[in-house]
Amino acid sequence: MYHFNPNDYQTELVALLLLLEKKEKLSPKQLAQLVKKHTKPNGNVFSKDEIIRGYREFAGKHGLAPFSDKVLKLVTMKPMRTQSGVSPVTILTKPFPCPGQCIFCPNDVRMPKSYLSDEPGAQRAERNWFDPYLQTYNRLQALHNIGHSVSKTEVIVLGGTWSFYPEAYQIWFIKECFRALNDFGVIDGRDAVLDWYSKMAESLETKNISRSADPAQNKKSLSQLQIDGEEMKTTYNRVISQQYTAPERLGGFDAYQTATWNELEAEQQKNETAKVRCVGLVIETRPDNISEAEVIRVRRMGCTKTQIGVQSLQNSVLELNKRGHGVAATRKAFKLLRQAGFKIHAHWMANLYGSSVDKDKVDFEGLFNDPDFHPDELKVYPCSLIGSAELMQYYKAGKWHPYTKEELADVLVHVFKETPEYCRLTRVIRDIPSSDIVEGNKLTNFRQIVEHELEQSESTVKDIRAREIKNGTFDPKDIEFNVTEYQTSVSSEYFLQFTVPASKVAYKNTTRFAHEADKILGFLRLSLPTEKPFIFELEDAAMVREVHVYGAVVAVGTDSVHKPQHLGLGKKLLENATQIAKDHGFKKLAVISGIGTREYYRKRGFTDGELYQLKKIK
Ligand code: SF4
Predict the structure, then answer these.
(1) Under CATH, what is the fold of the domain 297-465?
(2) Best mutation site among 164, 286, 430 for ligand 1, i.e. most ligand atoms within 8 A of its Cβ?
(3) pLDDT at 38 over 90
(4) Full-model pTM
């Protein structure tokens, strides 16, 4: 709870909140003028964070009306973050060896493989000891403080290769995420966790091992171990084993970072009815780590989506980049993940060693014209030259060069043009701090640059992200329903969506394009298997892989009029999917539900199976 000194802060802040209550709308300029009317005793204005926390504490008291979302919305910061309908909580696993030897991959020994210590998310993780409870809780707190509802949360676990971490660590990591979600708004267990790490750090210090949650301290003590891509005196895995894995065994981290399946399942069960529910859980791994057993294992953890590093569909390129697996492994991984109903979020790279602009274009097309692939979401990462990556040697030897801005734009324009309407282009450039990039593109707004080029060439971008309704307003009578069908090697896929013609959607302060595609309000991914599943309970079942309805997150019981999430679109999508499955002779419908959506599906007639929820089709 945020406490103000009643003698100085409270009077002015309450006066300011009383003014805010009377307003229906405020532009940023009007808000700035308003907050100057009631300041702190020292003359400083209240920050948005302070206003929001103060409002949460004082609403319903001191002459203020009961709590209302309306007031929060007037001051909410970063509204885009939850406009997709779900609050994302991204957390990192600890530094740990990775089976990959990819030449483009950074070797930052303060981070899990492939992450850089000056990326904002990575810094947050380091400041939290890479602990899942602290990271999750603090992220929820930060979102809550800036006025967002966190009642529906997607937890995204990033860092290295998930499947390579010990199983006990994985179970503990996910259990602690759920524990933080369950505790948020009820109890605060952060002090106990922090105490544990501080004691461990002290005990390691007596053994001359530095362990800190202070990025500056770690920079000082670990930077001399930083791997130089040019000289490659040592490898990431060796340093991590020496600095983390071995000391952790010594320091008792291993014993602490362990949990059983029963403990995880107990936290999952609590989350089914918690205030903050996990509606999606994402892990990232390599294709060659995906097997039938692994798919079942991550599903048991509650995972609903897998980020998977495809990087290239050319064996020669994978080999030149020391990827350690070929395209056959990627084909198999997609097949198994799709059969198990997972959302497949692929990572694909342009400008890899051994590729070219023309080869990249053909390679990208393969993602959607080869029935083995068809990802649901994509991150496109043009290769960046990072000082600690082995690629530096190739660059110095003149064997590899970063694309020019024009070459990069050429590839990315093609990427946008070729991405079908059922795929979400989540990123087209990795947001690497420019200080880490030795040479090549340092612009992070390439998406806008490419969108502008596409507009010039009168092209229409169809990917989901470009079509999300965001804060657009529309008349419900303009809503249209349509279905796109496509074939994969193991299924017939149906992408059901509710859309509104772009010309019928109004936006405030948003640049509009002449060739915008229809805006999307919600969609459902239905998979009708054409092969026998390897998971027993999915026998004869059609699979709902995703239901997503857009609209800013609206907490239960609050003002939510005219938001897509409250037009009953989710229910209608499910009814339509059921009809399509029935028309194709399926007797039951399975859903790969997030732990926090189990209640939702139970209310709609689904019963709990082992790993899925299922419903008979009548
Ligand atoms: S598998 Fe991923 S994390 Fe490991 S080296 Fe390759 S790119 Fe880096």
Answers:
(1) Transcription Regulator spoIIAA (3.30.750)
(2) 286
(3) no
(4) 0.85
